[in-house]
Structures are given as C-alpha cells and as structure tokens.
Design a protein that fits this description.
Blueprint (H helix, E strand, L loop, with lengths): L25 H16 L4 E3 L9 E4 L11 E12 L2 E5 L9 E5 L2 E7 L5 E7 H14 L10 H21 L1
Antiparallel strand pairs: 1-2, 2-3, 3-6, 4-5, 6-7
The structure holds nickel (II) ion.
Nickel (II) ion (NI) binds next to helix 2.
C-alpha cells in the first residue's frame, strides 16, 4: 500500500495520450489499489493514472457520499460509447488544486471498459459519476478540464494559477 505523488499542471505527463493497458497482472492491481488509496486520501472523487505519472489507460472513480458505503469503480481502457443530454457543473481536479470552473458535459454516458480481470463491462450512468467518467477519460487523452474553458476563461485561469502556485510554494 502506498500513497502516490499527484502530478500538477503543467506537468507534461498530463498532456500525453495514455497507452492502452495490455497486461492484466499483479502490478496493475497494485497500481489500481494505490490509486484508489491516493484518491480517498486526497480526498477526490476520481484519479487517472497519468495524474500519478503513469501514462496508461486506467482510472478510479468513487462518487458515493460520505455517509454511503464506498462504490469504487476501476475502469481499464474505458471508452464512452454513447452520450445523452447536457450538463454544466463546477469541476475541480487533483492536478489543478484550488481552481474550479463550470464545464459543459453530457448528462448521461454509456462507458465500455475492462475490469481488472480483463472482462469487458458496460455501465450507464448519470449525475456526478457521468461527469467524473468524462473528466477522467479526458485525462487519458491528455485533456484537462481547463482545456474545455473559453479562451477568455483560460487566460483568467492562467493568471489565477500563477497565484495559486506561488501560494502553494509558500506553504511548502
Ligand atoms: Ni482531474
């Protein structure tokens, strides 16, 4: 068991298109386990492998609320195969701490993925889990939620981000 170091924007690994997972072995299980632990400790509701410096198509998600039992989703090689409706909710990201912005997403998604036993599965989901699936699958394609902002909002983000980084360095 280990907590992994979360990479922050603009770490180049976050911009890379991640490679498909081909080996469903013990190291993959260990990585998924450590990623889940890192996500819960942060705390966050989703974490993709590139965020811990590993450019592979693996993500963990848990959008259950504090008083519910954990509902961990481990998605290997996930793909959105259908989407429906629109939503625009505020998002954040463990790789872009202290910054939040509204992002246009689909309201519902159907996701095909493999589990840790290499079995293909399909989930249909809405609400927060649907947003998290879209956000995390974006990470596997080198896309951050701030990449969805308008040019104006993105320039505001860059200015704010400088201040956030200065603030974080002061805290260290
Ligand atoms: Ni993120």
């Amino acid at each position: 068991m280990a907590l992994l170091k979360i990479r922050h924007y603009p770490d180049p690994v976050l911009k890379k298109v991640a490679a498909p997972v081909t080996d469903f072995d013990e190291p993959l299980r260990q990585l998924a386990h450590d990623m889940a632990e890192t996500m819960y400790a942060a705390p966050g509701i989703g974490l993709a492998a590139p965020q811990v410096g590993i450019s592979k198509r693996l993500t963990v998600i848990d959008c259950s609320s504090r008083d519910e039992e954990a509902q961990l989703l481990v998605l290997v090689n996930p793909e959105i195969i259908d989407r429906e409706g629109e939503s625009c909710e505020e998002e954040g990201c463990l790789s872009v701490p202290e910054y939040y912005a509204k992002v246009n997403r689909s309201e519902k998604v159907k996701v095909r993925f493999q589990d840790l036993d290499e079995q293909t599965r399909i989930i249909e989901t809405g609400g927060l889990t649907a947003i998290a699936c879209q956000h995390e699958i974006d990470h596997l394609d080198g896309i951050l939620f701030v990449d969805h902002l308008s040019p104006l909002k993105r320039s505001i983000f860059r200015k704010k981000w400088k201040k956030i980084q200065e603030h974080m360095t002061e805290q260290m």
